[in-house]
Amino acid sequence: MKKSDLLEPIAGNGLLHRRLFLKSSVAAMGAAGLQFITAKVATAAPLEVPAWMQTPGTGMSGYGARSRHEEHIQRSFGSLPGTVGVGSSRTPLEHLEGIITPGALHFERHHNGIPDIAPLEHQLLIHGLVDRPLMFDLESLTRYPMVSRIHFLECSGNSGANNAPKPPQLPASSIHGLVSCSEWTGVPLAVLLDEAGVQSEGSWILAEGSDAAAMSRSIPMAKVRDDAIVAIYQNGEHLRPANGYPMRLFLPGWEGNMSVKWLRRIQVTSGPTMTKDETSKYSDLMPDGRSKLFTFPMEVKSLITSPSGTNAMQGAGLYQLSGIAWSGLGRIRRVEVSADDGRTWAEAALTDPVLPRAFTRFRLPWRWDGGPAVLQSRAIDETGAVQPTRTVLLGERGVNYRYHYNAIQSWAVSETGEVSNVYS
Questions:
Q1: What's the CATH number where 178 sits?
Q2: Which of 268, 290, 312 is the last residue of a domain?
Q3: pLDDT digits (tens, 9 = 90+) for 127-171
Q4: 349-351 β-sheet, strand order
């Protein structure tokens, strides 16, 4: 392909070839005189010496802080009326890049507040259908071989705001921010269960947390044997209290509430326990009145984060469309982007690394002509699963299916550059 061909639209409304954002083709942009809308022409005059170069800077500290100029980047959060700890906080996806979510901006979902657990007093019990019940404290866990894995964690209620009859006019984070991606480090749960000696009829476990709600979920042994870990570190440091300190269960790719925080008990059982948290909650109501239980994996999904809802674009020109894609079933194989409400599609560039059950960052150059546009992305994972449209998803599940919303998100761009949430 000629460099000049990269500058020709490959899909409707100005989408350019993804190769412009691949390392081998970046030079083509400069060679063709292609400039981004924010580029400034430099002058030959010497640079001015700013104020912060004229006096010594501040001293060091024991725990680093971000720039005061970034303090406006916050999670949105709220509790149910009459409570202080029953609710959620949402990751500001539209302000982040790459695939790793800072621990302080990781989303949270709480059912009865954040317990203040003394690590020396906390223990994890493994019992039930085992040859010998065992107790583990934090110190003893650190003696076992640990693994580190980068995975997303998503609340099954994420994106549920788009079930509403009218599209909510909110930032991307307020609609889709119950998802984050971290490096999780801990001990494979299968190692601990092998030491306890799982009996032949032990085909499930019950995991219970130490919060005041005693959050608990049933998990099939096959998932435990596959990739479950007892996590004690997140992004290189001990778990934060809101994310499960001193230890939590982590189940890659499965709905977030199953990765039970403040883990205190693992009971090996012969079948699901049918707890309150998997019957009265986290069950999926179907149009015929029946409910689905144990719909564990979070399905293939993507989201354009820049630009996104309530943003404002600064005039016609060349822009970088950026977003994230993820799937609980494996790696992202492909992400396609449309600027004309799904009539035509262009393949986006995937930024390495592309990992299983983790965020994958995608990018695509877009030459906006200043006219109306509807931006969309759709992801395809390595199983061949394709992210559905909202019409298809709701047609299959109905409007009362509260969880596992993974439909294509549509962002409308007006002639004035305002970005809004629309249903297509």
A1: 3.90.420.10
A2: 290
A3: 999 999 999 999 999 999 999 999 999 999 999 999 999 999 999
A4: 301-306, 317-326, 360-368, 349-351
